[in-house]
Amino acid sequence: MDKLKSVLSGEEARREDRTVLETVNEASSLSWATRIKGFVACFVVGAAFTVLGVCVLFLPRIGLTLFIVFYTFGNLCALGSTMFLMGPLKQLKRMCDKTRALATTIMITCLVLTLCAAFWWKNFGLALLFCILQVLSFTWYSLSYIPCVREALLKMLATCMK
Questions:
Q1: How many secondary structure helices (H) and strands (E) does the chain include?
Q2: What mean pLDDT is reported for the chain?
Q3: Is the pLDDT of residue 23 over 80?
Q4: 106-128 burial, b if ≥16 CB within 10 A, otherwise e?
Q5: Contacts of 99 (CB under 8 A, 6+ apart)
């Protein structure tokens, strides 16, 4: 009966026009408390992997490789944690906003280049450089969610450079 109602009311046609991300976003009908718990859990896992990466950095032979893997995975978890708060579609739209597009592009590029430098090119100096760029771009991206902070930071930096 519900199927018949949706076809007659035109909802069925609207459902077919939706993208995969819109369907996933609509299907995630989590309560606010569950979203907060998911955010905290994913963020804590990301922070734990980042700290674990720093802890294994000084292991002989495999320390730098493990650091790069754990650190990058930790950043991905921290970035993914915000999808619990907003939903995947809204998060992806906000990541591509005019104010965040450059920071998002640099951040994702650095994540990929870090892994390429470590595993494909075997250049650990370059991998560490990309890790540092990950930190800077992730910080710049995160600050874009707080109104006027990036502008104030740029003014402060300009004042310090004089």
A1: 9, 0
A2: 83
A3: no
A4: bbbebbebbbebbeeeeeeeebb
A5: 144
The pair phi, psi for residue 153, each rounded to 5°, is: -65, -40
Do the Cβ atoms of 77 and 43 come closer than 8 Å? yes
Encoded tokens for 45: 């896992």
Judge whether residue 24 has pLDDT over 80.
Answer: no
The amino acid that residue 119 corresponds to is F
Percent helix / strand / coil, the chain, rounded to 5? 85, 0, 15
CA distance 25 to 113: 29
The 10s digit of each residue's pLDDT in 134-161 is 889 988 888 888 888 888 988 998 999 8
Structure tokens of 162? 């004089």
Q: What is the DSSP string of 42-109?
A: HHHHHHHHHHHHHHGGGSTTTHHHHHHHHHHHHHHHHHHHHHHHH-HHHHHHHHTSTTTHHHHHHHHH
Whether 134 contacts 72, CB under 8 Å: yes
